[in-house]
Amino acid sequence: MTADDSLGGRLDDDDYPAYTMGRAAELLGTTPGFLRAIGEARLITPLRSEGGHRRYSRYQLRIAARARELVDQGIQVEAACRIVILEDQLEEAQRINAEFRRAAAGPRAEGRGAESQGAGEQGAGDQGEPRGEGAD
């Protein structure tokens, strides 16, 4: 692996802290103070260079951009950060839920023969299943 290969991999990595605070603020059209404020609100935690300077990844810049959109709509910084955190948690929960549903559907789908699918059983009884016991 050459040095160029290593660099290319880091530049393609969304989590690589490639941007200084000044460059990040410039890209977002905001100020370094805004980046410090969302850091204090624990929305993002920039990594530090050897010299102690904040460094941001592309992923962190996307999160900061979403917070800035909310602030531009008149929402306070702390509230905007909380909204972004909750949106991210919801997205993650939905992704995990979809994975569980695929995993649960996999064995049932494999166990069914062509006759049972053709007999109208496909999906029968599945509608209330995610609720769990005692949902009635």
Q: Helicity, in percent?
A: 55-70%
The best one-word shape is: globular
Radius of gyration (CA) equals 23 Å
Count helical runs: 6
Task: Tell me what portion of residues adopts beta-strand conformation.
Answer: 5-15%
Indicate the structural class.
mainly alpha
Give the low-pLDDT segments: 115-136
- How do the strands of the widest beta sheet line up side by side? 1-3-2
What kind of sheet is the major sheet? Answer: 3 strands, antiparallel
Overall mean pLDDT stands at 81
Distance between the termini: 60 Å
What is the H-and-E element order?
HEHHEEHHH
Say how many strands there are.
3
SSE order and pairing:
Layout lengths: L2 H10 L6 E2 H8 L3 H9 L6 E2 L5 E3 L1 H15 L4 H35 L2 H8 L15
Antiparallel strand pairs: 1-3, 2-3
What labels describe this entry?
62% helix, globular, 6 helices, three-stranded antiparallel sheet, 5% strand, 3 strands, mainly alpha, 136 residues
Explained architecture:
The model is unreliable at 115-136 (pLDDT under 50). Helix 4 (58-72) packs across helix 5 (77-111). The chain is built from six helices and three strands. The chain has helices at 3-12, 21-28, 32-40, 58-72, 77-111, 114-121, and strands spanning 19-20, 47-48, 54-56. The N and C termini lie far apart (60 Å). It has a three-stranded antiparallel β-sheet with strand order 1-3-2. By secondary structure, it is mostly helical.
